Amino acid sequence: MSHALAPLPHRAASLAPVLPLAAVLALLVLPPAGSGAGPADVGSGLVVGYCAIRLLRERRRPLSPAAALVLGLPVVGIALAALGTSSPGAGPAGLGRYLQIFVLVPAAVLLLLRDHRDFRVLAWSFVGLALCEGAVGVHQYVTRTGASYQGEDIRAVGTFGAQDVMGMASVVSLGLVCAVGIALGRTPVWQRAAAVGCALALLAPLALSFSRGAWIATALTCTLQLVLTGLRRALKVAAALAAAGVVLVGGFGAGTAQLQERIDSIAQVTDAPDQSVVDRYALWSSATGMWRDHPLTGVGLKNFPEYRDGHATLALSSGSDVEGAGAEYRRQELLSPHNMYLLVLSEQGLVGLLALAGSWLALLVCGTRRLLRVRRRGPGLDCALVACGLLVWTLTDFLYGDIGGPSTMVTALALGLVAWWALGDGEHRDVLPRGGVRDRVEKAVAR
Fold first, then answer.
1. Does residue 308 lie in a domain region?
2. Is 435 left (phi over 0), alpha (psi -120 to 50) or beta?
3. In angstroms, how far apart are the furthest CA atoms of the chain?
4. Average pLDDT over residues 313-321
5. Residue 392 pLDDT > 70
6. Whole-number mean pLDDT of the chain?
7. pLDDT tens digits for 193-202?
8. Tens of pLDDT along 255-281?
9. Under 8 Å CB-to-CB from 132, ≥6 apart: which residues?
10. Which of 178, 167, 184, 189 minimizes the C-alpha distance to 127?
11. Do residues 164 and 208 touch, judged by C-beta distance below 8 A?
12. Burial of 104 (0-12, 13-18, 19+ CB in 10 A)
């Protein structure tokens, strides 16, 4: 009798390429440890290495010419800006971070995912992470152990802590976008029902994050997803969301005034802005001033803090308050303009912005074209809605935020899903399992 280990079940073995990607998402649940590379960052590096080893073993072509062009385009501006950094260590660090988020990790996702099934596994992983972080966030609100907001420790931040108050909001928003895309697709009924339930459950932690940028980006993205699937369905879902909103506000009566005040503040960004909005305007003005002085290649990667005060107005405060969720009170320095486009423009100049934005525009155009092909018939409507939704959310959120902190890894994986849908070879047909139907199909084609 052989003592060799029995092979893994076919279903589990077939998920081997996508499991490392799901593991990177799972590592985000771990609380951050210091200011260095977090567990998810280390995991993403291992995934990139794993992808390279698979390519060498299988002797596969790394990327199609179109994918290599689109994903490699940002390298031009990033490399030029890295040469202009004033600190010897800032250039390589900034170069590595940008390549990690916008090139290497998306390329690894594109190469590791093989079919719609793998795509859905990773999309559901986004939903699972969002539910975990959202549950922690709601518990923080109920028990008043969250980040400080208007003098009370009620802001839901999940495991990301008060130093990354946007982390949970981003994770929950992207998970909600994935859930809505799956619910609107042509997946089995039980999957659509589960996705609807998850989307409704994620509304509470999204609201309790008090993140206006995440609210705007999520509302815009989900509305676009609904419109793409038909006006009648959009109206039905809008009615259901309105009912859920009534339940949400009623269920969290203690926070109704704070939520209402936060919602009202969206319309007051010009009439009576709060200090956070004033700071943001001042940072935006500083970023545009840097660009005017260095129009082509910017001031260099990670040089925004060094040039900030020389271009900022007197309205800019010394920093933002950080407190709660296990953190002692401190002032956190404002090190970026909280606008990805202006951050790139100030540090990488017009060359960097055109390269990075050109890559995103190519992904948007290619992804939308393929969505329109499968909208009426054909497999993968849910994948199309998820991919295009993730990209629209990211590009919208970049108007109010930029990369930074552990949650940035979610952005990198989301861009990977977008790249797979927009740039993947072939027609994205689901892979049939070996044996049975697949073998008969291949034999028929061979004849």
1. no
2. left
3. 81
4. 70
5. yes
6. 83
7. 999 999 999 9
8. 566 666 666 666 555 555 667 778 888
9. 29
10. 178
11. no
12. buried
Contact 303, 85 (CB under 8 A): yes
In a domain, 213, yes or no: yes
Give the phi and the psi of residue 329 in degrees, each rounded to 5: -65, 135
Contact 371, 228 (CB under 8 A): yes
Residue 11 forms part of a structural domain = no
Give, for 149, the enclosing helix (H) or strand (E).
strand 147-149
Distance CA 115, CA 205 (A): 31
Q: Which of 213, 140, 154 is nearest to 401 (CA)?
A: 213
Domain count, the chain: 1
Quick one: pLDDT band at residue 443, thresholds 50, 70, 90?
Answer: very low
Residue pLDDT, tens place only, 48-85: 999 988 888 877 777 888 999 999 999 999 999 888 77
DSSP H helical segments within 314-380, as ranges?
340-374
Of 380, 377, 390, the closest CA to residue 120 belongs to 380
Q: 142 Cβ partners below 8 Å, 6+ apart?
A: none
Q: Indicate if the pLDDT at residue 105 is higher than 50.
A: yes
pLDDT digits (tens, 9 = 90+) for 18-47: 899 999 999 998 876 655 568 889 999 999
Residue with tokens 């940072």, as numbered in its chain: 283
Q: Is the pLDDT of residue 312 over 80?
A: no
Q: Which residues contact 176 (CB under 8 A, 6 or more apart)?
A: 130, 198, 199, 202, 203, 206, 218, 222
pLDDT band, residue 252 (cuts 50/70/90):
low
Structure tokens at 291: 């660009």
Average pLDDT over residues 3-18: 59
Q: What is this structure's pTM?
A: 0.88
Q: What is the pLDDT of residue 241?
A: 67
What is the extent of the structural domain holding 381? Answer: 17-254+275-279+322-424
Collapsing DSSP to helix, strand or coil, 147 comes out as: strand
Token pair recorded at residue 324? 């709660």
What is the residue whose two structure tokens read 């299988």? Answer: 58
| 6 found inside a domain | no
Which residues in 353-384 are b (16+ Cβ under 10 Å) and which e? bbbbbbbbebbbebbbebbeebeeeebbbbbb
Q: With b meaning 16 or more CB within 10 Å and e meaning fewer, what string describes 266-286?
A: eeeeeeeeeeebebbbbbbbb
Angle at 82 between CA 77 and CA 85, to 5 degrees: 130
Please enumerate in sequence order all residues whose Cβ is within 8 A of that of 187, keeping only pairs 6 or more positions apart, or say none. 120, 195, 382
Is residue 14 classed as helix, strand or coil in its secondary structure? helix
